Amino acid sequence: MSAPAGALSIFPGFPRRWPAPPAISEESGKLLKRENNFHQPGKRFFRPYRPGDDFYEALIETHRDLSEAQSAQVNARLILLLSNHIGDLNVLREALALARDGVLPEGDTG
């Protein structure tokens, strides 16, 4: 379970404590691009959603024949690689908050 926003967090293996990131406010949560933003430099597509479809196919192929644990490891590595590429902590915090929003509690089927 995560520490609530502003609470102290402990990272395993590190004796130091630091505050958890603040919760994203409605006013500040406008940095993350939510419209279709998939593209491939130098290539034109006849349908605007096609690059997104191509990414989805590549993502599925990346996970093909992996165990659930291996797939989770690939996802974790992909998140870290893309987060490093994005780099903007405000955008990343907004994405984290949006990703967690709407996740059902354990055992709740909706």
**Helix and strand composition category:** mainly alpha
Question: What proportion of the residues is helical, as a percent range?
Answer: 40-55%
What's the end-to-end separation, in Å? Answer: 20 Å
Shape: globular
Largest sheet: 2 strands, antiparallel
The mean pLDDT is 76
Largest beta sheet: what is the strand line-up? 1-2
In total, the number of strands is 2
Can you write the helix and strand succession as a string? Answer: EEHHH
- Put simply, the count of helices is 3
Q: Which stretches of 5+ consecutive residues score pLDDT under 50?
A: none
How would you describe the overall organization of this protein?
This protein has 110 residues and is mostly helical. The chain has a domain at 32-100. It contains three helices and two strands; from the N terminus they run E-E-H-H-H. A hairpin with a 6-residue loop joins strand 1 (8-10) and strand 2. The chain is globular, with a radius of gyration of 18 Å.
